[in-house]
Amino acid sequence: MKRKIPLRKCILTNEMHPKKELLRIVSTKEGEVFVDPSGKKNGRGSYVVKNLEAVEKAREKEVLENRLGFDKETLAPIYDEIIRLIYREDIPKR
């Protein structure tokens, strides 16, 4: 029997992707926002595709700011963390 692959919608591109191809951004009731590479932390999760072009375009158009309701200063380190995680995955594992 074939296992069902969980799909989630990327908030940057509005496209469905397998959950493993996405990074989870969490916003909590306390007003915190952070990247959750494990995908298991408590809070409201939004998914972002692991694609540098999409992330850079989203930064220019302030997509996360509009979707999550945080200001630019709060989300600047989040964009940086997403980009850092994408680069880290591109490095071949030995």
Automatic annotation (TrEMBL):
Domain YlxR per the UniProt entry, residue ranges: 8-82
CDD domains: YlxR (cd00279)
Protein's recorded name: RNase P modulator RnpM
Organism: Salinicoccus siamensis
Matches recorded under Pfam families: YlxR
Lineage of origin: Bacteria, Bacillati, Bacillota, Bacilli, Bacillales
